[in-house]
Specification:
Layout: H1 9-15, H2 21-31, H3 37-50, E1 67-75, E2 84-92, E3 96-100, E4 104-106, E5 112-115, H4 131-149, E6 160-165, E7 169-174, E8 184-185, E9 193-195, H5 202-213, H6 220-242, H7 248-266, H8 274-282, H9 289-302, E10 304-307, E11 312-314, H10 332-342, H11 353-361, H12 364-370, H13 377-408, H14 412-428, E12 431-433, H15 440-462, H16 468-473, E13 483-487, H17 492-512, E14 528-530, E15 535-536, E16 539-542, E17 552-554, E18 559-561, E19 568-570, E20 575-577, E21 579-582, E22 585-586, E23 594-597, H18 607-611, H19 613-622, H20 633-645, E24 651-657, H21 663-673, E25 679-690, E26 699-708, E27 716-724, E28 736-743, E29 768-770, E30 780-781, H22 783-788, E31 801-805, H23 807-811, E32 818-820, H24 827-833, H25 835-844, H26 846-849, H27 855-859, H28 869-875, E33 880-885, E34 894-897, E35 901-902, E36 906-909, H29 914-920, H30 923-932, E37 934-936, E38 941-943, H31 946-950, H32 960-983, H33 990-1001, H34 1008-1016, H35 1019-1037, H36 1045-1064, H37 1073-1076, E39 1101-1102, H38 1107-1121, E40 1125-1126, H39 1127-1131, E41 1134-1135, ...
Parallel strand pairs: 3-6, 12-13, 12-23, 13-14, 23-24, 25-27, 31-35, 39-41
Antiparallel strand pairs: 1-2, 2-3, 4-5, 6-7, 7-8, 7-9, 10-11, 15-22, 16-21, 17-20, 18-19, 24-26, 25-26, 27-28, 29-36, 30-32, 31-32, 33-34, 33-36, 37-38, 40-43, 42-43
Helix pairs in contact: 1-2, 6-10, 6-11, 7-11, 7-17, 8-10, 11-17, 13-14, 13-15, 13-38, 13-40, 14-15, 15-17, 20-21, 24-25, 29-32, 30-36, 32-35, 33-34, 33-35
Length: 1164
Amino acid sequence: MGILSSKSCDEQVEQNPSCSPEAFIKYWSDKGGSERANYQKFINQLCALIGTAEPEASSEQDALNNYVYEKRVRALDLEGDDGRNNYLDCYKRDCFVLEAKQSRKRQRGGQEGSDLFGGLPHSSPPAGTRPSWDRLMRQARAQAERYAKALPTDHGWPPFLIVVDVGHVVETYADFTGLGKAYMPFPDSRSHRIRLADLADPEIRARLKAIWEAPKSLDPSARRAEVTRDIAQRLARLAQSLEKRYEPKQVALFLMRCLFTAFAQNVGLLPDGAFTGVLNDARPHPQFLPRYLEPFWRSMDKGSDHDTTIRARVRHFNGGLFREAEALALDEQEIGELIAACSRDWKNVEPAIFGTLLENALSKRERSQYGAFFTPRAYVDRLVVPAVIEPLMAEWRAAQVIAENAQRKNEPAQAIKEIKDFHRKLCSVRVLDPACGSGNFLYVALEKMKALEGEVIATLEDIGGGTQANLDLAGHTVGPHQLLGLEKNPRAVPIAELVIWIGHLQCHLRQRGPESLSEPILHSYDNIRQCDAVLSWERVEPMLDEDGQPRVKWDGLSWKTDPFTGQEVPDESRTVPLQRHVGAKPADWPEADYIVGNPPFIAGKDLRAELGDGYAEALWRAYPHMPGGADFVTYWWDKAADLVRKRAARRFGFITTNSITQTFSRRVIQRHLDAKTPLYLPFAIPDHPWADGQGTAAVRVAMTVGALVEHDERTGLLKTVEREEKSPDKDGAVPVELKPFPGIVRSDLTVGADIASAKPLASNGKISSRGVSLHGAGFLVTPAQARALGLGRIAGLEERIREYRNGRDLTGRSRGLMVIDLFGMTEAEVRQKYPEVYQWLLDRVKPERDKNNRKSYRENWWVFGEPRTELRSAINGISRYIATVETSRHRIFQVLPSNTRPDNKLVLIFSNEAYILGVLSSKIHCTWSISAGGWLGQGNDPVYVKTRCFDTFPFPNATPHQKRVIGQLAEELDAHRKRVLAEHPDRLTLTELYNVLEKGRSREELTAREMEIYQLGQVGVMLDLHSRIDHAVADAYGWPADLEDARILENLVALNAERHREERDGLVRWLRPDYQNPKGQGAAVQIAATLDIAADTAKRIVWPKAPTEQVHSLMAALNRCGRAVEAESLARQFKGARSPRVKELLDILVSVGHARQINDRYAP
């Protein structure tokens, strides 16, 4: 302590705040104090001590205040006011919000908020010694969280909340998900409270410095990922080597035993160096490894006082992992890889590593069938928090309120009972993943539940209710017994069980150490069940033909070269049996409170091909209410939603493909939102990038959480991706920036205008369709091949071989192909009239059609699979029609001649009118189509869904003059594009023109190549024409040309409803009356759906009896109001609520920071 001898501590700290920790601790131990100015001085000197810059001076431009004291935020407030000023004690963007326990919140108009230090004397005792101190610290934490929510949207949620009691304690809470829903004590409930004396520890100071400067470096999942990547790479090399000699399942189970043994050694569950010693002994003589390992693993299975291999006691592990103790023979290099893996810090390994063993052991086809793709940890967190943890946190807050009320009444025993009751409930919560794979979602849920348990126990200890030890004696602790899983793949089941146990042991050991574990260390709960999650059946039997022989079909994988054409055709000798599932019915799920997971990504159209005819047909029979074409994942969504609506579960959340917002799959969601006992969506991300852990399987996904409407709560949170990186990070997750939109989340995963409520209009009926679907590439021919088949030589063939265009032909460079269209002819007619064409198709189309599942495709093999009869009738009598590519980056409409056959991936509007082309090409229609349609593909391109984008779109009631202006501009635009493309066929494409046009709209700088496209394509003229069309169409609607997208959508939804009412009353504004209504009748074509007229059915909610439910109901009512209200007004919203009780609970909500009081009113 020589440093303290020459000057007093006060002098040293005043003159040099970065002096020794001892001087800092001594100085502030004596100071503390209740003066507000002390907290800024304390933080300045703390910054100096940990070696980081202190907060900057505030700027008058608040947007520049990213690291300051007294950061101003606006909290939405009362009586239509846009908010009032609140001040964060200290704020650093992307790092933390800091609240000092002693501070007063200053608000606009000089109003004071709650005094977080009110009533405590200067000599406040150290943390944990007074209940009032704990209450004030909890209140400061809740206030920090509330003000973090009020930060500007582009700031996002900070990863840390810090609560400071000057001169005593710094508490740290973290949420690395970016959701702001689950700030937990960091690094855990035992270590988050940094007392002043703890600052002598250099590790503590380093942790604080990281919070100030690089908070994400403290994310445990990031640190685990670093360890995991190294081990995973070694595992991959080892697995690939072993699978050359052994079956993949053998390899996976062997490696699991090895890795768990390495984990057990590293964390102290086995004697130090035990496993490494066995490996080192065997390395010179690899052939003896099984002889050493197998008895050792049998000892781990049963336990042993003296294992002969390691010559030491081995604890009793059990759990089934070592029941089969088979060890594989390795070579010296492979043993070396295991030894290297053993040297890593297994306390921080990500248990998901075991999932890579599963995925590597599966073929590509198996991965598709099982949906066995690695889910990055960031994505799991993003779903588990709102689906499982957020409602548990709400219950915990309610329990704290009731316990606080008991303490206020001087009833400590009742306060302890409330906390213990919540802990028992937490320990009985069951979480189900009905597509659990390797168990990643379950172990993340367990980890976060254990963190919450740690906070509960710390609170219990603070109020004198006992310790973790005596809770364990009572048999209450969060553990693997609460996690349930269903998994079709038998290889995944033991991996999932192991992942959960390792996750559990990691949490336990971080908090308490290895000696606290009772034996057996692992238990066989058998709570991961190997079964099909959506379908059960009595038996599977082969389908028989008329002769009683098993029916087979082409396996869909094997091809051979046709000796005559040289084309690849199906190999009919490679078949699979057709099977029938007898007694098929929906599968039963075990009882659970929360359901979460990532079911298989299989599109509805691919079910038969991926899962087999028998399974697909049994599935459709078992779920007759499911819409045809719905994606496979919606069967999970539907089952979970049913369970929640029946109150058999509380909440569910799934990752799905983003096509869940499209017509068929969206109907599944809509059915449950519209039910008599309805669901709502508390959380959704409609469109999120996805890549597996290896940076592949790139698709777009959605995340949805469903819950029962209770307390009339329907408001959810929609998050949209504002920015994303182009490639995955090292852990396989694509980094994104999410923007929140609170509101009622619709079935199409939007908030705002209810586009999903728009109904098809008779005015748009009969004049749109998709193009033809060939189901055979042999129908396509080049012009030279067409001439060789007789075009220009055989009379009438010009009506049978026509120009053909698909999406790439229109937006890229046309292939110039033609198509053989024999619709309306019999097989005999084709053979007799066009024998050359007949043989061409006989060789190139029939072999593949013969293997097709559909009888009509097999029997009518010379005709397109989907010839579109409606297209043929609608195209008669017009010289041209309008086409757009179904899935495309840019929504472009163009005109095609009526003798051109369009591909299935084109959407067509059968109208000659240039006015229709102009309206469709306008910003108003494009805004509608993007919101009403969906997104598909790796490029996440908008999809033009005919039934949602065109059939529901209300055209303006334009005057003849307005129609003429719009039509002339549309003709000019279409002619201009065709002209420049014809002039530069090798240097321009339509997509390139619109890529440059979009950059021109946003005033982005063009590259040299883009400037060339701009000049050659005269893109400036295109921009001008589009602008003129946008203004002309807006004028036809009577709207401003600069109307925001949200208002455009609201107006169109309202106009759709108006048009639907008109049509119901007999007025139909036909777009092509000569075709749609040839007899000129005025009566409307009735639409199946009827107009929904919302009635005011507001009812008073029954006041719950249970105190915690009363708190839930009151908080929900407060949030619904969205403004400050009096206690009496809130009480009137409930049937049976007494105003004094409501006010009592509101006062407690204010005291713990979960509500605000402004004069005699209360606000969320």
